[in-house]
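Structure tokens please, single chain.
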Amino acid sequence: MAKAAKSSPSRSPSVSRETPSGPVRLAIINQKGGVGKTTSAVSLAADLSERGYRTLLVDMDPQGNASTALGVDRHAEDTPTAYDLMFEDDARPDPLDLGPDRPFLYAANSAFVRADLDLIALGEERRNFVLRDALAEKAAHFDFVLYDAPPSLSLLTINILIASDGVIVPVQCEYLALEGLITLMGTLEEIRREHHPALRTLGCVITMADMRTNLSQQIVADMRDNLGAQVFQAMIPRSVRLAECPSHGQTIFEYERWGAGARSYRALCSEILERLGKPANSPRAKAAAS
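Here you go.
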């Protein structure tokens, strides 16, 4: 497994200027597992980084697949985790620097299995806002913060949604995934009503699509008919390369830069930036190149 780069003074969040308007915080979320959620979180974070945006990926899934996919030993004692960020009030760690053109990372480990119990112990008034409050200072040094959410609807998920500005929902190209989407949309509406009125559903992205099959064609047509503009135009194909690259600790752009998977995630990232009213490449990157 590739070993992640350690923090260097030149890229430490503590010495970077604060983004004037604050970061854009996006949750990559679906309560159903196996829909391409982690692949989407890692790939979008990587592409944003390559475009010159300072990007922080927060792995909130107890399985820690996003951390593993980036080549990080999530069980190492010196690996900063999102669990430590949330629950170590006196010594919140800085995120891990993964090197140029890669995102910063808070990893996840098995400690997250007990996160809901820890949140309950904090009391009703505080338990839903722990992540938002813990990350406030650290996030200020980034352009984007992306959360890889667990495949469940729990107190941890509620924390992620309250700490987010927008939601991106990967939806696998099958009918059972569409049923789960209805449940998730109801949860998002409840969060808006009770805690976070400004939370925006940025869009749903169709993943694992094989447009050679009638099933994929029908599901895509149904989603676009029922959800309209909420469905991104970019679709992620079913791809062996996307499945392989995590075992090498590489993003799809490092593993097969010009393959179908990489092209699809670049197109999705461009569409997300357009919906957010952001330039295709960070103004900071343009200034550095000139």
